[in-house]
Specification:
3 domains, about 400 residues, eight-stranded mixed sheet, alpha+beta, single chain, Cation-dependent Mannose-6-phosphate Receptor, Chain A, disordered C terminus
Length: about 400
């Protein structure tokens, strides 16, 4: 009975932990649901803010004007560097020509009979250099092309007239830009209302084939602003946390609703395994888990069934001198079913009959039918004091199945 009280106390503690965790998770889920709604609103507000954002550039230039100014600065930077590189190339080319002239004269004018190894080595190196095939030929047409590219824009036929792009007239930029530019001068509430109406009308026109669909920040992740990306990531992370908490909450609720026997005492024995050697096999019972048959001489273990439910069985058997036995009366049972397939027979199953004992121990294993096993097991989990006299079997109360 001391052992049973320990199991009951442990089971009650474990059950309380599950109940407390459920309470914590309920609060977490409620808080995360609020955070998800807030994050969704932030994303929506950020998207609207991005749509209504007015890009301001120098002067009265609009979005195209700003882009044109940036492009013009970049082109001027590239043109300046091209001119510098050409100047450096011409200077180095002049030095190469001068050196080739010096070496050529050395080859023509040196005296072969003069025994100077340094001069001879230089001449041989020059001959090898001069005979080498190269692909560094340069035509005047190439220089003419570079001259044309190096001209400032507006001085040649190939130049870009930046003034046409940097003007404030952007009426033809898109079909709704005029309305968006107008909305920039409205109060925020009216801007949001106008934006929603324009979006609705545009969507109708796109669906009916009147306007072409255009990508924007809401459909193209590559053009989203840092603020919108951060808002979307916050929403995604919060939704993930909410999903995890909801999953854990459901698992704990399911665990709390399971049948763990009288007073939920078998919660303290969950996953506890005991074994018994019998002939060529070792048999294993895991409370609320599975039963197995393990060959001693090698080979794969056989699953004899997985725990399904508790039950009641009436027995009438003798108890041995060592006090191990089922005795007479009703005994709690554990049904293990859907085990490994039995050759030319049903799936393996085990009926575990429990009797009061100080230690968790398998007393006897038998095979009543082909691949249908019966285990007699002693455990303090099914003991109780009756009339304050002696330990007696505890009748099961509550549910019969999980």
């Amino acid at each position: 009975m001391k052992r049973r009280k320990e199991l009951a106390a442990e089971a009650a503690k474990l059950k309380l932990e599950v109940e407390n965790r459920i309470g914590t998770l309920v609060a977490e889920v409620e808080a995360l649901e609020i955070k998800v709604k807030d994050a969704e609103k932030v994303v929506q507000d950020t998207e609207k803010s991005e749509k209504l954002k007015v890009i301001k550039g120098p002067g009265k230039a609009g979005r195209t004007g700003v882009l044109a100014s940036l492009a013009r600065a970049r082109v001027e930077e590239l043109r300046t560097n091209l001119v510098t590189v050409r100047s450096q190339r011409n200077a180095m080319l002049s030095r190469v020509v001068e050196l080739e002239d010096i070496l050529g004269k050395l080859k023509e004018e040196y005296n072969p009979n003069f025994n100077d190894e340094g001069v001879k080595t230089a001449v041989r190196a020059w001959e090898e250099y001069a005979a080498r095939d190269t692909d560094d030929g340069w035509e005047e047409a190439h220089d003419r092309d570079l001259d044309e590219i190096s001209k400032p824009d507006g001085e040649g036929d190939s130049g870009i007239s930046w003034g046409e792009w940097e003007t404030s007239d952007e009426a033809a930029e898109s079909d709704v830009d005029v309305l968006y530019n107008f909305s920039a001068y409205l109060p925020p509430s009216l801007r949001l209302w106008l934006d929603e109406k324009i979006s609705t009308v545009r969507q109708i026109l796109v669906e009916n084939g009147i306007l072409a669909a255009s990508s924007d920040s809401s459909t193209s992740g590559t053009t989203e602003s840092a603020a919108l990306k951060a808002a979307r990531k916050t929403l995604s992370d919060t939704q993930s946390s909410l999903s995890n908490s909801q999953r854990e909450l459901e698992n704990h609720k399911s665990d709390l609703a399971k049948d763990y026997g009288p007073d939920s005492i078998f919660r303290a024995l969950k996953s506890t395994c005991i074994q018994k050697d019998s002939g060529e096999y070792t048999y294993e019972l895991c409370f609320l888990g599975s039963t197995k048959q393990k060959p001693k001489k090698g080979g794969a273990d056989q699953n004899m069934g997985n725990f399904v439910s508790f039950g009641i069985e009436t027995v009438d058997e003798e108890v041995g001198p060592d006090g191990k036995g089922l005795g007479k009366g009703e005994r709690i049972t554990m049904k293990y079913e859907n085990g490994g397939h039995c050759w030319n027979g049903p799936a393996r199953s085990t009926l575990v009959i429990l009797a009061c004992a100080e230690k968790d121990e398998i007393w006897k294993i038998s095979e009543s039918e082909k691949c249908v096993y019966r285990m007699e097991v002693g455990t303090a989990a099914v003991c109780r004091l009756q009339d304050g006299a002696s330990a007696q079997p505890l009748k099961k109360e509550g549910k019969d199945e999980l």
